[in-house]
Amino acid sequence: MPNNDNSKIGDVQSAIAAGAALGDARTIPDTPGPLGFYTVVPENYKVESLEDFMARPLRIQQKVELHDAASFIAYVQEFGDHEISRIFFDQEHEVFQVVIDYHSGNGVPGWCEHVAGFVARRSEEFKAWMAQNKKQLTQVDFARFLEDNLPDIVEPDGATLLEIALTFEAKKDVEFASGVRLQNGQIQFQYNELVRGTAQKGTLEVPEQFVLGIPIHVGGPAYRIPVRFRWRLHEGKAVFWYEIVRPHRYVEDALREIRERIGQETGLEVLAGVAK
Q1: Model confidence over 194-216: pLDDT tens digits?
Q2: Which burial class, exposed, middle or buried, applies to 95 when counting CB atoms under 10 A from its CB (0-12, 13-18, 19+)?
Q3: Cβ count within 10 A of residue 5
């Protein structure tokens, strides 16, 4: 009859030997297998990766925020792969994003962990003009706004606009009688001014439209943007403002140019959408 106690002792010794074998030191091979290096840790028998102990990671896991189209293009050119990398364009938020390790076209999945992108930031000039678009201003405030942003105006010339702005400031106490459009595209204001106790009549001509020459996005080309001059007279006082006609069209044009440039210089198709 076999000795059950001896059998149990043998089982325990075998288990101890197996545990010791698991704990024996191992060297990490130079070349990883298809899924990397792993070891079984006795505690809870979890499988742990040894990637942190290697000379370098098995794959790139990186998210990069770039600040202009040129940097974005340079990054894609350095790390991109025409077989698997994909570029996405979110027009609503003006964001371009590249997933370097995307899925391949033959259905092989990718990790999608190496991602770079940039937001097409609006230029300070465009933001300044949009901030005051269609806002009614007093005569003096409108004149000062023109003075502050005179370099952005390409038509009419700066000297003409400066003279108009200075005249607006100088004539802040006059009483406007009327404003009419002339055949030459100007608006002529007639006003009454009290000079040394004597009422005098005068006229002031302002262009009905002026043209901006400003970039839409930081680092982008300048666009010619027509701006309409508007006014309202009430009890001898004038209120002025301007209107940028359909500004979203200029934003769309600027984004389309950036999209085309990225596609041409990276050799990758820029897809409309968002990678999530």
Answers
A1: 665 566 777 778 888 899 999 99
A2: middle
A3: 8
Q: What is the DSSP letter of 237?
A: E
Q: Using CA atoms, how far apart are residues 54 and 85, in angstroms rounded to an integer?
A: 26
Task: State how far the Cα of 188 lies from the Cα of 179, in Å rounded to an integer.
Answer: 6
- Cβ neighbors of 176 (< 8 A, separation 6 or more) are 189, 190, 191, 233, 236, 237, 238
Q: List, as one string, the DSSP characters of 62-84.
A: EEEEESSHHHHHHHHHHH--TTT
How far is CA 18 from each of CA 5, 15, 38, 58, rounded to the nearest angstrom?
Answer: 20, 5, 18, 30
CA distance 245 to 227: 7
φ, ψ of residue 220 to 5 degrees: the values are -90, 175
> pTM of the full predicted structure?
0.75
- What Cα–Cα distance (Å) separates residue 120 from each residue in 216, 248, 251, 257? 9, 14, 10, 12
